[in-house]
């Protein structure tokens, strides 16, 4: 259960999002919202990337009280990943895997599912946006997450890769009980993903549709 | 077009290099008075070799600003600048000329009185050299930018693909690699400056009855000389690794990582100290001084990244803290005390501010 209480996020004194209380149960959830509504800010707050007012906890592990334990359980992949062009995807994924306490074998197995080892030792500067996106998506699956946040996981990917990612989400949810927060401007295919709930980010707040 | 280039490149350059420019101004006008600058200019106008030394500094600065402009063109957030290709070649080239001219103002404004003096003394050769070097810098910069904008989709470096990628780069080396690959001129200028400072105090030491405080002052200045590099470390992480804060690492692990990264960055200073350190002070004192330099660098980074941010007031505090520290050194407080306090303060800053910075 993801618990959000008295949450406020502001930039330069301007309120972007405010949620008094929101409980998101385990499952695969779709977070919808127009451009600039604050979806990514919400995701980045839940992932602990940006500071905010209030409390966010995952299964009673409070993000601010237990920052390391929380971040071991909550992973995120950004919508538009940007990595230094002189580093390789392997450099970046190896660091993230070590930080998330994942093994090299696990990382390799995840990467192989999306055919990433074919290019991951080349510099990121040579990757297409789809190749970068795959690296970012894999980074969210390493370790032992309980909640994975995927911000626009389908953009820039080809049909085959999208199906593979659907498969990974389903498998992680069914076998490991991992919950997902997904955002996408494209509709998810209901037969491919058993969505539990849909949440809307609108008028500076979030609510269940 | 000129306005877009001004906003995306010129303004950004001066914003990012405010400390560098401030340091140069302090260095140039803090040590020398106006009359001494005039004497230097007269010397340069009378001797071609001195004038060429001036030109070398202008060329180095020109290389720094041109490489910045080229890099800025390739940044992802500036990709829209490739629409410049759609403009006719002449107005575009003229805009590049104006932009490079705006970027070299730091050295051009120094060259201006030299030109006036050369004109007054009828030193036509010197005047020609000064005008020629500055003009050439502007022209070269504009030509490089024109060349770059015409081959925007051919940036793959095949040699790089096969070189140096057989080993994994550990996280502590991400930023040192960025410095070497993307900020080479900044890195070389900074290291040149700090090497000169450290060699200067080491050579000065045997000439009078100095003690270790002289070396400590040198290390302090060398530490503060890294401030632009340290500021870039913060930018580097915010641009490319915002997700760091989603990593389940303890504050101590982050701190250890930063200390190691900064240790790698000041390796050139370690070599300079090792080669030039006065033997009379002993190896132990040499290590104490190096750790002092290291701790100054560590503290500066943590202060700049997690407290000062972009705030101007923060940098004023930093400047006056440096002066205060220099005074305390003169009061014979041992360098290892500063090292210990600096490291503890850095850790506490990181602990309090790591997740709070935006």
Keywords:
heterodimer, A: 209 residues, alpha/beta, six-stranded mixed sheet, four-stranded antiparallel sheet, B: 358 residues, mainly alpha, globular
Main sheet: strands, sense, barrel of chain B: none
Shape call of chain B: globular
What do the pLDDT scores of chain B average to? Answer: 86
N-to-C terminal Cα separation of chain B, in Å?
32 Å
Characterization of the model:
The complex is a heterodimer of chains A (209) and B (358). Chain A has 209 residues and is α/β, with parallel strands linked by helices. Chain A has helices at 39-46, 67-73, 89-99, 104-113, 129-141, 159-176, and strands at residues 2-11, 14-24, 28-32, 53-58, 61-62, 74-77, 147-151, 179-183, 195-202, 205-208. The two termini of chain A are 18 Å apart. The mean pLDDT of chain A is 91. Chain B is mainly alpha-helical. Helix content of chain B is 78%, strand content 0%. In chain B, helix 5 (89-103) crosses helix 7, helix 10 runs antiparallel to helix 11 and helix 12 (227-240) crosses helix 15 (282-308). The longest helix of chain B has 27 residues, at 48-74. Chain B starts with a helix and ends in a 5-residue tail after the last helix. The chains are: A alpha/beta (209), B mainly alpha (358). The A-B interface holds A 11, 44, 47-51, 64, 67-72, 74-76, 78, 82-84, 86-88, 90-91, 94-96, 99-101, 121-123, 125-126, 139, 143 and B 76, 155-157, 160-161, 165-166, 168-171, 174, 177-178, 181-182, 236, 239-240, 242-243, 245-250, 355-358.
């Amino acid at each position: 259960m993801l618990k959000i209480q008295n949450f406020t996020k502001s930039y330069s004194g301007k309120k972007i999002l405010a949620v008094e209380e929101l409980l998101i149960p385990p499952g695969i959830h779709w977070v919808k919202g127009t451009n600039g509504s604050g979806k990514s800010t919400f995701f980045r707050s839940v992932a602990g990337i940006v500071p905010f007012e209030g409390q966010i906890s995952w299964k009673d592990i409070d993000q601010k009280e237990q920052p390391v334990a929380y971040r071991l359980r909550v992973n995120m992949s950004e919508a538009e990943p940007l990595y230094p062009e002189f580093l390789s995807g392997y450099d970046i994924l190896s660091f993230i895997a070590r930080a998330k306490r994942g093994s090299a074998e696990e990382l390799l197995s995840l990467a192989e599912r999306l055919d990433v080892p074919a290019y991951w030792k080349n510099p990121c500067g040579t990757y297409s946006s789809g190749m970068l996106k795959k690296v970012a998506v894999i980074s969210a699956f390493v370790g032992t997450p309980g909640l994975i946040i995927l911000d626009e996981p389908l953009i820039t990917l080809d049909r085959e890769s999208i199906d593979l990612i659907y498969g990974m989400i389903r498998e992680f949810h069914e076998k490991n009980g991992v919950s997902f927060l997904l955002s996408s401007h494209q509709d998810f295919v209901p037969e491919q993903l058993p969505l539990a709930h849909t949440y809307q980010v609108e008028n500076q707040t979030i609510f269940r549709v | 077009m000129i306005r877009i280039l001004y906003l995306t490149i010129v303004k950004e350059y001066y914003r990012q290099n405010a400390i560098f420019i401030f340091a140069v101004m302090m260095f140039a006008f803090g040590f020398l008075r106006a009359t001494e600058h005039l004497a230097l200019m007269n010397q340069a106008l009378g001797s071609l070799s001195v004038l060429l030394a001036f030109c070398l500094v202008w060329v180095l600065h020109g290389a720094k600003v041109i490489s910045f402009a080229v890099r800025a063109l390739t940044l992802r957030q500036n990709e829209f600048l490739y629409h410049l290709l759609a403009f006719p070649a002449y107005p575009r080239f003229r805009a590049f000329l104006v932009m490079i001219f705006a970027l070299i103002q730091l050295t051009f404004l120094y060259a201006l009185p030299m030109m006036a003096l050369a004109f007054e003394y009828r030193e036509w050769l010197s005047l020609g050299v000064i005008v020629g070097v500055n003009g050439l810098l502007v022209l070269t910069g504009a030509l490089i930018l024109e060349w770059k904008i015409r081959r925007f989709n051919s940036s793959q470096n095949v040699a790089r693909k096969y070189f140096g990628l057989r080993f994994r780069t550990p996280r502590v080396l991400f930023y040192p690699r960025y410095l070497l690959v993307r900020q080479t001129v900044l890195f070389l200028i900074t290291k040149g400056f700090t090497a000169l400072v450290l060699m200067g105090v080491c050579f000065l030491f045997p000439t009078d009855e100095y003690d270790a405080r002289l070396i400590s002052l040198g290390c302090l200045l060398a530490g503060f000389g890294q401030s632009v590099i340290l500021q870039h470390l913060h930018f580097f992480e915010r641009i490319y690794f915002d997700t760091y804060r989603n990593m389940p690492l303890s504050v101590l692990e982050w701190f250890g990582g930063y200390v190691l990264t900064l240790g790698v960055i000041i390796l050139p200073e370690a070599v300079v100290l090792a080669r030039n350190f006065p033997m009379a002070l002993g190896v132990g004192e040499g290590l104490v001084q190096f750790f002092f330099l290291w701790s100054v660098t560590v503290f500066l980074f943590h202060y700049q990244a997690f407290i000062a941010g972009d705030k101007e007031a923060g940098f004023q505090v930093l400047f006056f803290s440096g002066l205060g520290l220099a005074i305390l050194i003169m009061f014979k407080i041992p360098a290892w005390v500063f090292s210990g306090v600096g490291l503890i303060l850095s850790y506490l800053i990181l602990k309090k501010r790591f997740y709070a910075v935006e």
